[in-house]
Design goal:
Blueprint lengths: L1 H17 L3 H15 L22 H14 L6 H15 L8 H17 L4 H14 L4 H11 L11 H4 L2 E7 L9 H11 L3 E6 L5 H14 L2 E10 L6 E6 L6 H10 L5 H34 L15 H7 L7 H35 L5 H19 L3 H8 L16 H10 L2 E5 L6 H10 L6 E6 H4 L4 H16 L2 H10 L7 H11 L5 E5 L14 E3 L5 H9 L7 H11 L12 E3 L14 H5 L4 H6 L3 H20 L1 H24 L13 H32 L4 H26 L4 H25 L6 H27 L1
Parallel strand pairs: 1-2, 2-3, 5-6, 6-7
Antiparallel strand pairs: 1-8, 3-4, 4-5, 8-9
Length: 805
Amino acid sequence: MGLGTSWRKRARGLRNGLSFSDEVRRLVELLNQDIVHTDRLRLRVATHPGGFIRSLSARRLSMGEAYLKLAHSQTPADYPVRLSALRLLVHHAHHAKTLSLPLNTARVQIALMKECVRARASRTRQLELMQDFAVASYGREVVIRRLLRELGLIEVPDDGRTLKELNLAWDGHVHDSSSLGRKTPSHLLLDAFIKGVSRLTVAYYDLEDPGVRRELFEAAEILGIQVEVGVEFSVGEAFKRRHFMFVPPQDGTAEGLDAFLEAHFEELGPFREGLIKNAEARYAGMKELLAHFNEVVLPLLNARYKGNSLLLVRPVSWLDVAEMVPEGRISKAQIGYVLASKLRPVFHRRVLYLRNQRVHVLRRQREKSVSQWELDNIEAQYRQALQDYRECTPFLLQERYVGKGAAVDRASAFTSLEQLSGLFRKWGGRLVFIHPLSVGLNAAVEEILAGCGVITDVETFNMSDALLRDPAELRRLNSVVEWLNFGDEERLKASLLEWGFGTVDGARLHSVCKELKHRLLRPSFGSDYIGGHPRNPGMGFTSTVALTHRAVKDLRRHGHSTVPQALAEVKISYQNRDNSEVPGDARVFFVSRIQAKEYNVLGDEREENEKLSAARLWRYLNPGIRLTLKILVAIVPATLMVGPWYAALWLGITAFRNITADVVSSSGMMMRTWSLSNIDRDNLGNSVFWTGFSVPILGLAKHGFDLGWPLLGVSSEVWATIVKFWIIASANGLYISTHNRIRGFPASVIRANFFRTVLSWPLATVGSYALSPLGVPAIVQSKVWSDVVAGVIEGTGKFVHRLKL
C-alpha cells in the first residue's frame, strides 16, 4: 500500500511538473485571488477584447472576473452591476481569435470559466479547464464539438441567428432568486445561454419589483433569449391547494409588461392583495419550519459536543435567513442554503477535532494504553463526522431537516379559481395549471373540467414534481389532456370511470370538449428549476424535431435522459400542429444531464482519487513541450526522404503559414501588435506533425511515377512534367483529406484543403521550369506551391473574419 501510494505521488508530481504553461498557472493563481476577494473586484473597461484592454488583463481573467461579479452579486438593487458584468462577459466570449462556430464557442468559453471558478477545491482541475479555455479560444470546430460533448451541452446551429431565433430548447417553469431559486435573473439566464435554451418562463410570487423585471428582460436581450414572466398563486384550503401560474400579455420587454400592469392597476388590486396575503402565510410557515429545526433537530446535532462551544451549532435566526435571501423571499430550498452556510464550518471543525483525537488514540493504542473498544468508538465518531461534513449540502439538509416531522401549510387567500376567472378572461394572457398531480389525479381532472373556460395550459410534466409521482398517473393526466383536445368523449369517459373518478356527467364533458375544439389546452413542460438538484438534470427541454441528426446522436450517446414517450408525443404534436409530418420516433430530451452528487471536500480527497492516464497527460502537457515533441517526430521521416535542409524547409513552410494566419487573424496587418500568444500552438504542432509524414508519401508517389512513366513509352518532357506534378498533387490531396478526417475536420474544410492541391498543380508545373534546374526536388516544389495557395485561401478567410470582429 505504501509503495503504491508513493508511486502515485511521484507520478502525479511528474505529471504536474510537465503539464500546463506558465501563463495558465499564473492566470489560475490570479483567478483564485479574485475568488477569495470578490468584494474588491472592479469590472474592466467594456471595450474590444483585441484592443488596448489586452495590455491591462488577459481575456480569460477579464471573463473570470466578470463571472465572479455576476455570480456573487445577490442584492436586488445591484442589478445594474450584474448587467454590466454580463455584457462584458458575453462581449469577450464572442471574440475568440479564429472561429467558425461563434455562438457555440462563446457558450463553451463561458461554461469553462464557470467550471473553473467552481473547481477551486482542485487546482489541477482548474489548470485543465484554463488550458481547455486557451485551446477553445481559437474556435476550431473539432475542439469546440469535443468540449460541448464533455460539458454535456447541445450544439446549436451557428448561422448568425440568436438562440430565440433558433427556437431549439425551452422551459416553461423556472425560478430565480426573487421566488424559489438561488440565482439572480442575470445568472439564471446566463445558465440558460450556456445550455442553449431559447425560451424561458420565469415564475414569481408577485409583480411588485420593477427592478427584477428590468434585469430579467435586459439580460435576455444581451443573451438573445426569449423570456416571459409568470405569477404563481394557489387557491383552496390548506393541504388541498391547487397551484396556477398567470402569464400576463407581454411583448418580451420590461416596458411592455409595465404598460399592462399600469393599464390594469385598479383591476389588479384584489389579485395583488391576495398574493401579499399568500406571501405572508408562506413566510409564517417557513418560520415554523425554522423553529422546528432549532427546537427539535438542533439538540440532536449538538448532543455529542455539549462540552465544546466551538463544535456546537448555534440556532439559526430569521435574521440569518434575511441576510442571504433578498427581500425576505424564502422557501424550503433557500432555508437549505442558509443551513448549509451555518452548519458547514462547524462540521468542518468537528472533523478536524476528531481527526486529532483519532491520531492521539492510535498512538496510545500502539503503546497498549487504550483498548480496541476505545479505538473503534473514536473511529466510528470520526467517520460519522466526516460523512456529516461531506453531505452538508443545501439539498441534503433540506431533505433531512427542513420540515421533517412538521407539516406546514395554510389556506390560500383565494378560495377557488372561479373567484378570479372573470379577471383572467378580461386580462387575456395565459393561465397554467401547474403541479396538477399535487392534489391527486381525480382532483386535477376535476379542476381542468371546471376551469376549462379560463385554463389555457396544463403542466403535463414538471421535472421536480415528477420525482414524487406515480408514472402511471403522469401518463393518465397526459391522456386526459390529449383526449380533451381531440374531443374523444367516449374514451375519456370510459377511462375516468375505470380510474375511479366517480360519476361522469356526459353533458358537462360534451360542453368542455366543445369549448376546447376552438382553443386547445397547451401541454406545458417545466423543470421547476431553482438552481440545481442532485436528482434532476436541470433546466431545459428540446425535441428531436428541432435538432440536427448529429445533435440527436450526441444527446443519446452522452447520457441525456428523455421525457416519457407518451408525454413527449402529445407535446411534440401540439408544437408541430401546423405540420402533419412529425416523425414517429420523435423524442423530448432534457438539455442537461444529471450531475454527480455534490460533496464537500477537506482538500486531500481529490488528489488521492484523481485518475492518472496517458491520454490526460498528453492532452494537458505543457504546450511548448508537446509542440517540440511533435516537431521532433515529424522531422525524422522528412529527413530520411529529402535530407535535413529540405526537411527543415518543408516543416518551416507549414509552420510559417500557420503562424502568419494566426497573428494576422488576431491582430490584423499591424506587425507591432503581433504576439506569440496569438499562435495556436496545438494546431501548429498538429500541422507540422502531419506534414512530416507527407514527405515519404509524396516521395513514394514520385518514385512510382519514375518507375511507371517509361513503361508508357511517351517521350514528351512537357507531358512528363504535367503528369508528374498531377500525381504528386493528387497524393498530397488524398493524404491531407485523410488526416483532416482523422482529426475530425468538417467536410467543408476537407473539401477546401483538397481543392487547394488542385489549384497548386498548374503553379507547380509551370514553376518547375525555374526550380528544377536549381536541383529542388519535385515533391518540395509541390509542397511550396500547395502552401502558397493554402496561405492565400486561409489567410484571406481569417483576415475577413478579423474585419468582421
